[in-house]
Amino acid sequence: MSEPRWLAKSAAPSDTHQAWNQPADAAKAVCGPYVLASNNEKVVCDMESALDKFFHLKERGTTVRTELLAGLTTFITAAYILAVNPSVLSATGMPQDALFTATVLISTIGTLMMAFLTNYPFILAPGMGINAYFAYTVCLGMGYSWQTALTAIFVEGIIFVILSLTNVREAIFNAIPMNLKYAITAGVGLFITIIGLKNSGLVISNEATLVSMFSFHGSIEAGTFSTAGISALLALIGIIITAILVCNNVRGNILLGILITWGIGIICQLTGVYVPNPDAGFASLLPDFSRGLSVPSVAPIAFKLDFSNFFSVGFASVVFAFLFTNLFDTIGTLIGSASKADLLDENGKLPNVKGALLAESLATTFAGLIGTSSTATAVECTAGIAQGGRTGLTGITTAILFLLSLFLSPIFLAIPSFATAPALVIVGFLMFGAVTQIDWGTATEAVPAFVAIVAMPFMYSIAEGISLGIISYVAINACSGAENRKKISGVMWVLFVLFCIKYFFI
Known about the structure:
The chain is about 60% helix and about 5% strand. The chain is mainly alpha-helical. The protein folds into three domains: about 5-55, no CATH class; about 65-435, no CATH class; about 440-505, no CATH class. The longest helix is centred in the middle third of the chain and has 28 residues, at about 315-340.
């Protein structure tokens, strides 16, 4: 038997079936780049033909190989979410191993739904801004249990489904001024950044100044450098390393930053520079394979909804905050990613945007049931798009890799917060870039945007930033002449009234 060879593509998929039982030279004219041929074997090219027909590969100027590579690139870039999301949500008291499984499952399910409902190269995963709001505002700040927060996610998802099946969701999005949308994105970026700095120990509380930088000298004198001190130092080193990788356009830069920082930490532990102290919150950095590569159970957090606060005003405000924040996160990322992939039509709209919104809303509903925060279209999918991904095959590839990562839970669960903190800081930096799109030359637009941006980190709440941004926008423009009053939509007036009621009467 002769050695197989890979034949070049030169004909349409409709001609594929003619290649069966034909000599290799004849098959050469009709089969795709993945046709395996030999003199004594049939030429098999139906697979590529079927994929091309289902995903419209040729129509979008891509190939199976390109889509697979793009899916791998997206996974490498987005894999840090599997470590960061459990780390953030575990602050609520939820078990981190169960959170890892939930994160993997919802990322897999959501991405598959996005691929099949839209045929776009986008992925769905727990949003980095939403998870921080879930943990630090709703649970730790407002005092709600994580079960109640999951219920709010579930309810939000159902509302999203209803809004996505109609045109209400798009209408709400279109009613919000563009400058406020940019401001919300930038503000969430700052909020994520301060969360990362806090989790790493680089930023600590201070009675005189509210917050201050961690004192390495003080840590040495107090004898805590082997735990808190080295952790903060490694976080700082990790931020610099990740920033260098980003600046040099290294593929998978955020994930590499996490792994390198973690690797340095392991070296520190092996050499005695870092000394684990679980009682103080400093666990071992070495993966625990004592239970093998078993998949952690999601049972401790799945289907743990608590409707006891369902009719309270506070619960309604939490649902609305999730709803509003997720609204901008998803649609904004969709438009940005679609533009990068050349998927927008001549009017700047995304065909089948309803399918994309439906996929995201269904995934969010399932997220509440499985036990994690809302999903969103991950900005990291732009890495796969830059690699050439143009169809749902990219997403399916990423989803499969997400699912396979289930069996690597000991590795992901051993990644410490000082290693994931640089990822939060850099993602915050990337999101903060939206400030360049704000019209700073028009005060009636710039001042409300500024209010929204600074409120989120300084008040430690995404919801407060959104609320104050809308209130200031309506108030400032309503008092700045007839032309500015015309800019205020009916929806904005309704939101203004609702937020005022919230602050002054509830």
